[in-house]
Amino acid sequence: MSLSTHQQNLAKIAVAIGVNLQAGQKLVINAPAECAEFARAIAKAAFERGAGDVSVKYSDEHVARMRYDHASTETLTKVPAWHIDRLKSMVDDGDAVISIHAEDPDVMSGVDAEKVKAAAVALNKAAMPYHDAIINNRIRWCVIAVPTVGWAKKVFPDLPDADAVSALWDAIIKASRVEGDDPIANWQAHNDSFNAKSDFLNRHQFKAFHYQSKNGTDLEVGMPEGYIFTGGAEAAEDGVIFFPNIPTEEVFSAPHKDKVNGTLVSSHPLVYNGQLIDGFRFTFKDGHVTDFHADVGEEALKSLVNATEGSDQLGEIALVPYHSPISEMNILFYNTLFDENASCHFALGSAYPTCIEGGTDMNEEQLKNTGLNVSATHVDFMVGTDDLRITGIMADGTKIPVFENGDWAI
Ligand code: ZN
Ligand code: ZN
């Protein structure tokens, strides 16, 4: 089986738009073993663009699962030196990194959650310099998604394996804007639209946004002074523009953690720690969740809200039009890269320091003082409906429509 033109276009877009690979630059590809054919297409596109070198690190989620089943916690929390050396050399050499996400959402079900948590904490701690480099865009990176049988069967459980994979491919191609004669032009136009929206929102420095929908949402979200909306492309430390996520549809910022009041009703189900939460709503008072309900999965919702410090306060406000390619497909992807981009959403938990002026130079206390939420958790949930209205309220009380009938009004 060879890749279709659209699939090859996705590989090219990841290289040219995603990490914006420069002549002579090295590229690292992180890929599930199942996605080897696609990793090869990325390597080909990279060399055609003048890559200095390309290396692929393959992973296998089934072996990862075996490790949790058989290796001891002591072993799993001891991060090998070669792993860290590899990350360090990537950052030091200024390599570009493309990561393919294709997890089967159920592959870890039944695994000892404490073991997974301990291994993740150890890895995060050991890999801190690398994660730091990513958060501060010191290197250019991009996350894309490619179907595997396990993931595709979760999304399309009623289809035979091959059909499920091909249906998921179709959805990814559509969502990733690689159709038509000139996918690069699609992405340039897409980015112009992100810039226009962010500029408008940043210029107005709204005091608050008022959300209203006939599903019961009636929420005022206060904004911190000096907030920054961003979306689409980002500039790396060296000034080169790149797209960390393909696809992407959101323009996002950080709300003021203590100035959220009213009722917020979800529009889509949420999968949290493998559990489905649906038909849920929150009541906010002075930024905190004071009441909540879920038709399905209320216990999981409770553990989400009470998880840790800051998990009962908002850390992200994201605007996504109801009529975007992803949301119009009306598919639950079980993959944040897609589900987060299907609808206007908020996140309970931490804010991105990049969402406030000077934020990347602030410590936790300073971030909190500006109104940004600091927490060990960050969970997105969707609130976009076809009748969602969002009104921007300026400091002098002037009201400006930002969203009407679920779509941008600016
Ligand atoms: Zn988001
Ligand atoms: Zn988020």
Blueprint (SSEs and pairs):
Elements: H1 5-18, E1 26-32, H2 36-48, E2 53-59, H3 61-70, H4 73-76, H5 81-93, E3 96-101, H6 113-126, H7 128-135, E4 141-145, H8 149-155, H9 161-175, H10 183-204, E5 208-212, E6 218-222, E7 230-231, E8 234-235, E9 241-242, E10 251-253, E11 260-265, E12 270-272, E13 275-285, E14 288-296, H11 298-305, E15 314-319, H12 325-329, H13 336-339, E16 345-349, H14 364-370, E17 378-382, E18 389-393, E19 399-404, E20 407-408
Parallel strand pairs: 1-2, 1-3, 3-4
Antiparallel strand pairs: 5-6, 5-18, 6-11, 7-10, 8-9, 10-15, 11-13, 12-13, 13-14, 15-16, 16-17, 18-19, 19-20
Helix pairs in contact: 1-2, 8-9
Residues 250, 252, 316, 318, 340, 345, 380 line the site of one zinc ion.
Task: Describe what this molecule looks like in 3D.
- The structure is a single chain.
- The chain has 14 helices and 20 strands.
- By secondary structure, the chain is α+β, with helices and mostly antiparallel strands.
- The protein folds into 2 domains: 5-175, Thermophilic metalloprotease-like, CATH 3.40.1830; 203-237 and 248-408, no CATH class.
- The strands form 4 sheets. Strands 5, 6, 11, 12, 13, 14, 18, 19 and 20 form a 9-stranded antiparallel sheet that branches. A 5-stranded antiparallel sheet has the order 7-10-15-16-17, covered by helices on one side.
- Helix 8 (149-155) packs across helix 9 (161-175).
- The model has no long low-confidence stretch (mean pLDDT 93).
- The structure holds zinc ion (2 copies).
